[in-house]
Amino acid sequence: ILFPAVALLEIVAAGYRQLFLSTDNKEQSLITLEEIKFVKALVLTQHELTEIFTQIDMLKREWSIYSRPWSSAGPDCMRPSGMASNDFIDSLLDQQTLSQHSLNEFTLHAHGRINTDNTQQKSTTILTTNMIRDTTWSTHDASSVYSHLSTRGYQYGPFKINDLSSYYLLHPSLLDACLHPLLALLPGNDTTFLPISIQKFVSSTNKNLSCSSNVEMRGNYHDNVCGLSQERTYSCDLIVLSSGDKNSPSPEEEILCSFEGLVIQQIQGARAGRWTLEKSIFDKLNAAVDLPNVDRDEHLNMILKDYCMKRTWIDSPIYI
């Protein structure tokens, strides 16, 4: 089970709110994380518990997220409300040791900076709700989209999203679902992409993602998505807003959160593996029939080769 990258942002936002924001402070209505780097994916298993730590340096305005196996923490590892034990405090002094598999088996997963200056949150590059009025592609068949994504290694829903507005600040499941259209627009087959960095992430503390009945995502890739760069990455900007308020005279006030400079990268050497084998060539072709930027040549050539008859002329000598 791959722990979503947006869930790491939820953890940092919760720590930020606990340390920096108070309930009667109405001026700080935004949580801004910058220079976010996802170093290593956090993989969870069903048979082993994982302990996650969040480190926030209040002086440098920096944060990091680590994990270690629960078995390495010892019997006294339960620390609610951010209370740390002595073994963890000593390890925080050496960043290099902590970022690798140390004696306590700590692993660095993500790090970045916190911007506490709420007076300069007007972005010059982020999308506005009026930038994209005429869409070039739309679909109401979500099942075909997720069927196509399953061939690329993404095993999504459908699952009912419970009402956890009182527990989450961002609601990671819903926020992660807002990123799914970005994956559906990518060309190629049987390739998996994961986020590696975000230049800036801004979220409102006054509006909860799960409190909106309808959520809309609008995004823009920086470059043409017809091919990959040498780094095999794509970068984009996107905003998440309440779709019912898109015609508001002041649409920026309705933005729930925004991503600037979100970079996703193809996993080197990764193929969809067992998910690809579970679907026939016809199922994969039907799932991608309504999707843009899908390279159908590979599937069509395979069908022609395996299922279509080909007339072959053979020169035969003529005997008189």
Automatic annotation (TrEMBL):
Gene3D superfamilies (UniProt xref): 3.10.129.120, Polyketide synthase dehydratase
Pfam family, one: PS-DH
Region (N-terminal hotdog fold): 1-91
Residue span(s) of domain PKS/mFAS DH: 1-273
Transmembrane regions: none
Region (C-terminal hotdog fold): 108-273
Protein name: PKS/mFAS DH domain-containing protein
UniProt organism field: Adineta steineri
